[in-house]
Amino acid sequence: MKPQQLTILGATGSIGISTLDVVNRHPQQFSVFALTAASNVEAMLPLCIRHQPEFVVMVDETAARQLRAQLPAHLSTQVLAGSQALCEVSEAAQVDQVMAAIVGAAGLPPTLAAVKAGKRVLLANKEALVMSGQLFIDEVVKSGAQLLPVDSEHNAIFQCLSAAAQAEVGTMSLVDEGISKILLTGSGGPFLDLPLAQLEQQTPQAACKHPNWSMGQKISVDSATMLNKGLEYIEARWLFNCQQAQLDVLIHPQSIIHSMVQYADGSVLAQMGQADMRTPIAHCMHYPQRAASGVEALDFTRIAELTFVAPDLQRFPCLRLAQQACWAGQAATTALNATNEIAVAAFLNNDIRFTQIAEMCDRILQSITPRDFGDIDAIIEFDQQVRVQARDLIRAVA
Ligand code: NAD
Ligand code: MG
What we know:
- This protein is an alpha/beta fold and about 400 residues long.
- Among the domains are: about 5-150, Rossmann fold, CATH 3.40.50.720; about 330-398, Rna Polymerase Sigma Factor, Chain: A (Orthogonal Bundle), CATH 1.10.1740.
- Helix 6 runs antiparallel to helix 16 and helix 14 (about 330-350) packs across helix 16 (about 375-395).
- Strands 4-3-2-1-5-6-7 form a 7-stranded parallel beta sheet, sandwiched between helices. Strands 9-8-10-11 form a 4-stranded mixed beta sheet, covered by helices on one side.
- Helix 2 (about 40-50) links the parallel strand 2 (about 30-35) and strand 3.
- The protein is globular, with a radius of gyration of 20 Å.
- It is built from 16 helices and 11 strands.
- The protein binds nicotinamide-adenine-dinucleotide and magnesium ion.
- The site of nicotinamide-adenine-dinucleotide has 26 residues, from helix 1, helix 6 and helix 10.
- Nicotinamide-adenine-dinucleotide binds near residues 11, 13 and 59.
């Protein structure tokens, strides 16, 4: 069989590198068409040499120039610059699969370009779906793109669905499937048991030290505030077409179960595995087949216990805000995502304290009036407005 041509958006990131690790294990099945990154030349150069993609996109022009100068002469890889090129390598006719693994709202345009071109889209970039919701799903339906969830929880839920439901991501009927509830699990992050009074003084370094998963900085901070679980709650709502009563969050500190689906007859299906993103990535890349991912099977004799507890919304106000925003409409979820991106960047830069991330999200959400968006451009414009408002707020509080 002809190898699948793959574009990896965000190739130098944590998900991008794990995706290339899976590619390495199956050289006959996958061929890298394009790799993209924001600006990290040092990280991109060895990936180009190893995978010899047809195209590389560096969003930053200077980085693109530097990479061109450093590429060995025997490589025919073309280096493109600018964010428009991200869309071009996502929608190119040769491409079969697009791994959407850019962090944040910057991933929306190229992910959507892949969707509109009817590709198989492996969605890690949850922010893209959170900020565009129904409009994103509408585009999936319109183009017939195959949307597969990479986020470990959503991938777990997907694995616990019937084949018929798997073919209808975004539009399935949970009731017709006999599903009474989706149970989204989360570890609770590094601050699950920290005395509440100490939350305020937590440093970026402490926030990024996740007990179970190794991830990029932004999602690591989101895991510490549990806004990551909040974004995932919104992501699940769209992927699995949930009503409010059909979606719950459960803390499971061991991260062995990656999420569960509860059926009307009382059965609960769970997907389990190591906390290693290569499992959901390989699942999506090979779907509906199964293939080696480099991840070892669980050894149940070494698992002491599986525990579960309801999330403490006082400790994790960001989770509460996201759950409220989810049912308040698109303006709320777009605004929450934009504010959080600005707040997390400010926290990582030591401009605001850890607890101010939630305060900022709360302040901005309170100022939002519900509204509808006719198209994605209107959403992106609104996202930009909220970012200006959020930056003003930082100047006022920092
Ligand atoms: P990361 O920070 O490690 O990597 C981000 C990638 O995006 C890099 O290649 C970077 O160059 C690129 N990028 C950053 N800003 C960009 C911009 N403005 N324009 C174009 N490219 C840009 O992030 P990550 O941890 O790999 O996460 C990527 C996405 O996957 C996020 O949406 C995250 O929520 C999701 N995700 C990650 C994990 C994980 O384990 N890391 C798990 C589930 C979901
Ligand atoms: Mg996740």
